[in-house]
Amino acid sequence: MKKNRLEAFSDGVFAIIITIMVLELKVPNQNGWTALLPLLPVFLSYVLSFIYLGIYWNNHHHMLHTIQRVSGGILWANLHLLFWLSLFPFTTGWMGKNHIASIPAAVYGIVLLMAAIAYYILQRVIIAGQGQDSLLARAIGNDWKGKLSPLLYFIAIPLAFLSSWISSSIYAFVALIWLIPDRRIERVLSEHQSH
Description:
Helix content: over 70%
Order of helices and strands: HHHHHHHHH
Distance between the termini: 27 Å
């Protein structure tokens, strides 16, 4: 299989996930500013999830550019990642509608953790198939953000039962560290193309 089919399928899934999430934003029945206040938790959870999906889409896009050939293992690892990302609309809606309550916030964190693990597995499967000297292996390096994120999710999930706002703040912090553009793959690709 050519990687452009994998990219097109994955991009379609990302687009559907975002579309489903935005449909959770219900229009209020009143026309005043106060009508928007009850929707604030729903909107904030949507913004956070939209940012996360944007980060995953961006990094996934760059990662797929390093692939030389697509194997069955890559297809399954990619589907595994898309499965966890497809749960974002459910957990986002649940957390927002329940004003970021403890159990929905913890479940949201579990989905974030599982998506991070699935992304790591996809990276490892690509490197295993392409070799330790592959473009992706060289680009990743020590991957401090990839190691720190699951650790922070592990901390935030049980913290949701103490304070769901603290755990949500940790989720937002992880998103912020990933918002800073990661140029590792771009750098390795441009070096590879210049040789």
